[in-house]
Model the fold of this input.
Amino acid sequence: MTSTSTQAAWELHRPGSRDVALMAVAVVGISLSGPMTALVTAPFLAIAFWRNAAGAAALLPVLLTRERATLTGLRLRNLRSSAVAGLFLAGHFAAWVPSLSMTTVAASIALVTTTPVWTTLFARLAGVRFPAPVWWGLVLAVLGAGLIAGVDVTVSLEALAGDGLALLGAICAGGYVLAGARARERLATSAYTVTAYSTCAVVLALAALVAGAPLVGFSARDWLLIAGITVVAQLFGHTLLNLVLSSVGPTVVSLAVLLEVPGSLIVALVLLGQAPPLLALPGMVAVVLGVALVVRASRPTTLVEAGT
Done:
């Protein structure tokens, strides 16, 4: 990635009313994702596989009809970034979904939304320099994650492992966001999402095969929940965020995603009757505030040549 494209990926754009409306719907969708996923008894690889496979299938007609013209002159190398995004997305789901059954939904969501922390670190490795408030935000987010993990040590080692998986999911999501931003420079939303979701689904299917996890044979309740997750989280959540990614940039999208933390906490209280330990709440607040500071202050001031 050149220095110019790296800087472009980190520009903070002012969203229009349409973008705000789409992001609002997307936040509601992703806020429902964690609590609904925690209700499913099917294997976590199956949940992730079907939401991505169904998401790709739902968007394929759009690609082949309304946005078919965007395929003209398209070459396989143009899909490379989308495929890479799909690989990161598979890693995100493989790590994050099982964390929901190991720690509280609120803790898992708070930690998995540290994605901007990791995208900032990735950008720094690529040569982007950030102002001091970004690093203060990183410190605050890390301290918050430490508080959550410290409380979960007293709960169980399983809860602590769930925290670790949620953080790994956030790291993979960081790669997904950055690869997606690069892919959307060349591709229409449907072409990008179909490629990324399909790649993710294939990888998860192979992982399920290796792990011996079934992809079928679930109860009607589980199928309904998986269908609901696909609609609200995959189509109204991820896909709408992908749609606005090219116009508002990954920084604003990451800031919008932070609203998933209070949203999921409310939904988890209603659907699951689940509340995080009171001692973990300061850690969650610190994570949200730290990530918000990172996102708001992460416009690069000086850029070092990062190569191609």
